[in-house]
Write a structure and sequence with these properties.
- A four-stranded parallel β-sheet has the order 3-4-5-6. The chain has a two-stranded antiparallel ribbon with strand order 1-2.
- The termini are far apart.
- With about 110 residues, the protein is an alpha/beta fold.
- It is built from four helices and six strands; from the N terminus they run βββαβααβαβ.
- The protein has one domain: TIM Barrel.
Length: about 110
């Protein structure tokens, strides 16, 4: 991909070879879709947003949202929640169980139930 707009990007200590990212899209950003996007040139794909509380409570549906594709060099789950304790617990689980490249915290979704 030759373009003046396409270039490497660093997020903290994470060096990503390009700046083509897939945003988290509820209902679409599952493992299969992320794998296709990566195969087509995306450098980093966020997971669908997952509930911090559902994650630490062990929800099977939430676990499915966090399945990582074999071609995902960078893994970027997005979490949301309204309780600090839930967010802490979920972050700890993500770090220990899923070893993400980064964690995105959704702090401004316009959907009322979020």
């Amino acid at each position: 991909m030759d373009s003046l707009l396409y270039k490497p990007v660093s997020i903290g200590r994470l060096d990503i070879p390009g700046n083509l990212f897939l945003a988290p899209v509820a209902g679409y950003s599952d493992r299969a879709f992320r794998s296709i996007c990566i195969a087509e040139g995306a450098n980093l794909c966020y997971t669908e947003m997952v509930s911090a509380e559902a994650l630490w409570r062990g929800s099977d549906k939430t676990e499915m949202l966090l399945l990582r594709g074999e071609n995902e060099a960078f893994f970027a789950p997005q979490i949301f929640g309204g309780e600090v304790d839930s967010m802490k617990k979920a972050t700890r689980i993500l770090v220990e169980k899923y070893t993400p490249s980064l964690i995105d915290i959704n702090a401004g979704c316009p959907v009322p139930k979020i």
